[in-house]
Amino acid sequence: MKTITSLILTVFAFTSFSPAARAQTETPNQTTRKRQAPKTAAKPAAKNVRKPRPTATPLPTEPVVTEGTTVRTNPTLTPSPTPTAPPVSESVENRRVEEVSSPREYEELRKRTQESPAVVEEPKVETPEETTSVTYSPRGDKVVSAAINGALVGLAIPTKYGLSAAWIVNDWMTLEASYFTGSWSLSLPFIDLGGLSETVIAANGRFYLGKSFNFIGGVGYQSYDASIGSSILSRIPNAPPNIDVLSTRSLGLQLGFGNRWQFENGFLIGVDWLLLNFPMANLGSSTDVLNYVNNQGDRERIEDAIRFMQYFPTGAAAKLSLGYSF
């Protein structure tokens, strides 16, 4: 009997605590709540996830930068600005470039540059390019010049005019040939003359001490022609034609100084402040009239006039020149 009773109790207990029995005993509200409860499933743990790299912070000190070395820092490293070394050559061979990508590399580079001796780059001497020097040329590129001359103040004969032509040797010297003539009706204090004419043919050089100022030196051929006045001719009986003419020829020096300005367009203007002709050698004279003069006083006056024309220096002051250069 006891055996049957224990068997019944065991079956009852098994049926009471089984899942099917619990489902039958649950109330409808409890079943609804279980169905509406959200199902939360635990997410699987992520595998092989790399941790973010720490951000580099700027160091308080700046690496020593020597000449010939350039340090490129990471954009995140912004050290305070310090005076930089003077610029050196931009050639790649003279530069050592270090790439810094982390604070550790930055610190190693700083220590290495402090311990290593400074690299001193020899200064590069740059030879300037050869350039053509441009200098002022008073005469420019001219070769020859021609001018007309005139003087209102002269010795013996006040008014003179002429022509001249010059070869421009260089900026400081020109060689010139000139023709100068003039005439005047006058009577000298010691003789009655109907007229006096002068002709000077000169070859000289102009030597410049600046852009325009020059000294003149050369040789000149000088000729004088004079006509005897009527007072003397009236005392010469049976005088032949053209007997009243006196003439002399001489060779001498021509000296002077002046200014001559040459313009870029070719025109030139010159002023010879003083130009003198000094007769040095007598080349001849025509004194046929002395053969017909019997009056001793008239004879002496004619001889004085001949000596005057042979040895008296002539020239001009403020001689003007106007010409053109080619």
By oligomeric state, this entry counts as single chain
Largest sheet: 8 strands, antiparallel, barrel
- What's the end-to-end separation, in Å? 164 Å
Topology as a string of helices (H) and strands (E):
HHHEEHEEEEEEHEEHE
The Cα radius of gyration reads: 62 Å
Across the major sheet, the strand order is 3-5-6-7-8-9-10-11
- What is the overall pLDDT average? 74
List the uncertain runs.
25-34, 73-78, 88-98, 130-134
Q: What's the structural blueprint in terms of helices and strands?
A:
Elements: H1 2-16, H2 19-25, H3 28-36, E1 69-72, E2 96-99, H4 103-115, E3 144-151, E4 153-155, E5 160-170, E6 173-184, E7 193-208, E8 213-228, H5 230-233, E9 245-262, E10 267-286, H6 296-311, E11 314-325
In words, what does this structure look like?
The chain is an alpha+beta fold. It has a domain of 156 residues. It is built from six helices and eleven strands. The strands form two sheets. The chain has an eight-stranded antiparallel beta barrel with strand order 3-5-6-7-8-9-10-11. A two-stranded parallel ribbon has the order 1-2. The longest helix has 16 residues. It is rod-shaped, with a radius of gyration of 62 Å. About 10% of the residues have low confidence.
